[in-house]
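User: Can you help me understand a structure? I only have the sequence.
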Amino acid sequence: MNLTVATPHAIGRPGYSALLPCQPDSVRRARAFVSNVLQTWGIGDLVDDGEVVVSELLTNVIDHTMCAMAKVVIEHCPDGVVRIEVVDNSYVQPQMQEGDAAEESGRGLFLVAALSWRWGCAEHDWGKSTWAELKALAMASSAPNPVPKSENVR
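Assistant: Let's start by predicting it. Here is the structure, written out as tokens:
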């Protein structure tokens, strides 16, 4: 069994990151990582959605790239927002698949879009980062949604 080591951010927003091999077992470890961080921060109402989001983002990397490793990042942003990000060295952009809701695969980004306040993909010189932002229930009910759910950042 490989150990997932959470590394706290030294500068910037409060957060943690974990480097995981791109293999199916890492999805379970990423879910536990996100769950533990959210519980530690006292925002357990985001655990279920956060686990689904990180599962879908990491599964996309595992299934659609040739990356050996991916980094999972979770940050506590202002206004009750939590950013979950999967970073890899592939330039393959995630694409929403058109299809039937009853299909067993291809719905991952639809789930990410449905569960998140907003999401997107940022291209970098070294690869990409695909992210989703969730709002804690207390904040989500009182604040308007000024940004579209899907936002591709380049």
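Now, to help you interpret it: The chain has one domain: 14-142. The first strand starts at residue 7 and ends at 8. Let me know which part you'd like to focus on.
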